[in-house]
Amino acid sequence: MRRIQQTKRNPQQRGGFTLIEMLVVLAILVLLMSMVGPRILGSREKADISSTKTQIGMFRGSLEQYNLDTRSYPSTEEGLVALVEAPADEEEGTSNWDGPYISKSEIPKDPWGNDYQYEFPPEHGKGDFPDIWSYGPDGEDNTDDDITNWTKEEGEEGEETSTEE
């Protein structure tokens, strides 16, 4: 009779993946990430832009309340900080400051870590409402990705929000 020889494994030895198997799995993961990664990053940027537009809209509401109380908007020098801290100088009307006008103790930064920009009297917007904008993803002023509260004119760069009436 023939004996079939069985190989006995040492219980301490484990079967593992071969180098080829590991490389195939790694190649598949790289391929998946190259297809999915840009979509995830693109979605994140869209969410950040949407969040910025929402925050600018919230500043608008807070500034309107500030204006109702003080009969003016903060100057460019006072900026958005006037929504959380009473202006230091006693200009006409600022004694009626009844803030803070936002729920945070300081003005939040945009999703890219930059301060929101504020200008009054406005240079870009129509009417007498202050200009509010974010430098956008690139962090630079006057570029295509700036997010503003005014409607862009022909040849003017940046993304507009729909907060202007």
UniProtKB/TrEMBL annotation:
The chain crosses the membrane at residues 20-41. One of its GO terms (biological process) is protein secretion by the type II secretion system. It holds the Pfam family N_methyl. Residues 85-165 are annotated as: Disordered. This is Type II secretion system core protein G. Its main location: membrane. The gene is pulG_1. The keyword Methyltransferase does not apply. It is a single-pass membrane protein. GO terms for cellular component: plasma membrane; type II protein secretion system complex. InterPro entries: Bac_GSPG_pilin, N_methyl_site, Pilin-like, T2SS_protein-GspG_C, Type2_sec_GspG. Residues 39-150 form the Type II secretion system protein GspG C-terminal domain. The keyword Cell membrane applies. It comes from Symmachiella dynata. Keywords: Cell inner membrane, Cell membrane, Membrane, Methylation, Transmembrane, Transmembrane helix. The lineage of its organism: Bacteria, Pseudomonadati, Planctomycetota, Planctomycetia, Planctomycetales. It is found in: Cell inner membrane. Belongs to the GSP G family. Residues 138-147, 154-165 have a biased composition (Acidic residues).
